[in-house]
Amino acid sequence: MQTSHNILITKANGEQELFNSEKLFRSLVRSGAEKETADEIVEEIASKLAEGDQTRDIYHRAFARLKDIKSHMAARYSVKHALLELGPSGYPFEDFLKEIYIALGYTAKTRVIAQGRCVEHELDVVAMRGNERIGAEVKFHNSTGVKSDLKVALYVQARFEDIAAQSGAHTDNDFTNKFLITNTKFTKQVEAYAACVGLQLISWDYPAQGNLRELIEQTRLHPISCLTTISKLTKRRMMDQGVVLCRQVREHVDVIDSLGLSPQSVTRLFQEIDALC
Questions:
Q1: Where are the alpha helices (H) located in the chain, listed in sequence order?
Q2: Residue 266: CB atoms within 10 Å
Q3: 267 by DSSP, 3-state: which?
Q4: What's the gap between Cα 161 and its chain centre?
Q5: Strand duo 16-18 + 120-129: pairing
Q6: pLDDT (tens digit, 9 = 90+) per residue, 144-186?
Q7: 152 and 173 Cβ atoms separated by less than 8 Å
Q8: How far apart are CA 39 and CA 42, in angstroms?
Q9: What is the CATH number of domain 87-219?
Q10: Which of 25, 29, 109, 233 has the largest count of CB atoms under 10 Å?
Q11: Whose CA is closest to 183, among 136, 227, 229, 251?
Q12: Domain ranges, ordered by start, for the chain
C-alpha cells in the first residue's frame, strides 16, 4: 500500500494537511474491514483525490464503500461522526458517557446538582468506583471543526474550585478526579492549562491512552446514531425516548413498536445491531 500522497486536503476547521493513506487504512481496519479490502478502498479513494478535497468528502466516500460491503462496518467507521448527532442539547452524549462509565465498573449519574461555596452547580456526569469519585463536565459540539477552547476550561475549573471549597461540609463534593470531556478536540492552550491545574481531559483522540475512541472500542458501546439501516429522524425519536446505545434497542421493544417500522426494517436493524455489538 502506498502510505503517503503529496496531495493537500482540507480539514473541517479549514486547515490543510497532506493526505495520509495509512491513517485512512487504520481507521478502515478498526471498523472491521479486512486488510485487503481496506487497501482497495484506500487506493480507490487516493486515485480520485484532487487538491483541496474536504476530509468530510473523503469520509463519505469511504463510508459508502464500507456500507456496500457490510453495514455494521460502516457503522463502526462512522462512530466519530455519529457522536456529532448526539445533540442538539448534548444530553444524549452525556447519557452515552454515563453508559461508558457503567461499562467500566462505575456507578454513574447524569445532571447531578452539587453545592458550591457560592452557588449550586449541575455536573453533567458523576461516576463512582470504590474510593474514586469522578466529576465530569461535558462540552458537546455538532461539528468536527469546532474545538473546546481555553475559556471553556477556565469556566469548568472555576466550577470545580467552587464545589471543592464546600467539600469540607459536604464530603460528596470531594472529587478525586475532575474531567472535561468533549466529542471533538481541545486547543493546545487547553491541554497546557489542564496539565497545570490538574484538570483531566478526554476528547476523541486525547490523551494518547484512554481517549474517547479507545473507550468506545474497549467497552464496545456504540451510539444508535451510527446505525445505517434507519433514518436520522428515527434515531432522533429513539434518543428522545432515552435509547442512546445500539445494544439498548432490543431492551426497548415498546420504543421499536412506537416507530412504525416495517417488519423488514426491524429485521435489518436487528441484524446490523447484532453484527455491531
A1: 21-30, 35-47, 55-69, 71-77, 79-82, 91-103, 150-165, 188-197, 212-219, 232-240, 253-258, 263-276
A2: 17
A3: helix
A4: 27
A5: unpaired
A6: 889 999 999 999 999 999 999 986 654 556 799 999 999 999 9
A7: no
A8: 5
A9: 3.40.1350.10
A10: 25
A11: 136
A12: 8-69, 87-219, 226-276
